[in-house]
Amino acid sequence: MTVTVVGIGGSLRPNSQSERAMRIVLEGAISAGAKVVEVSGPDLVLPFYDPSVPERPENARRLVEALRQADGVVLVSPGYHGTVSGLVKNALDYVEDLRGDERPYLDGRAVGCVAAAQGWQASVTTLTALRSIVHALRGWPTPLGAAVNSREVEFDLEGGCTVPSVAEQLRTIGRQVTEFAVSRSS
């Protein structure tokens, strides 16, 4: 059985460092046998989440439906002032639309978390925030998460990384999400 892993992340800047990091995580998921769906950059430009407004723009409906079908999730956020970017946080607020589902929120799904920031403090606090959000949404953060210091690590457009051990850590997160999803579906 093929599982689906949805990657959410990046910034408004196309091919940002966090978006490139997400692609490496998704490579790990693919190598473990997953089908992947990437939701990044322009896909994340959504109106502020308002639970009292039932109409959703097309990109919000696609995001929610992708998460509804997901067996696993990868979240990658740039660290903005020590926490998750508003763009990623607002996208995660749309998970509220899954509250009445048979599998509400991210219930029973492994979620890999990665934070990328210009320094250790912001990357670590952002990773901690992502893991807390995943707990609140009933997801299972993978044992391995990654705090990437963008001052020391760079990702290129071809999927390369200047620090091989960081690239392997990111791929491991993708594999962990996939392996958990496969074990839950058996």
UniProtKB/TrEMBL annotation:
Pfam families: FMN_red (PF03358)
EC numbers, comma separated: 1.-.-.-
GO molecular function, one term: oxidoreductase activity
InterPro entries, A to Z: Flavoprotein-like_sf, FMN_Rdtase-like_dom, NAD(P)H-dep_reductase
Listed Gene3D superfamilies: 3.40.50.360
Domain NADPH-dependent FMN reductase-like: 4-144
Keyword entries, A-Z: Oxidoreductase
Enzyme class, broadest EC rank: oxidoreductase
Superkingdom, natural source: Bacteria
Identification of the protein by name: NADPH-dependent FMN reductase
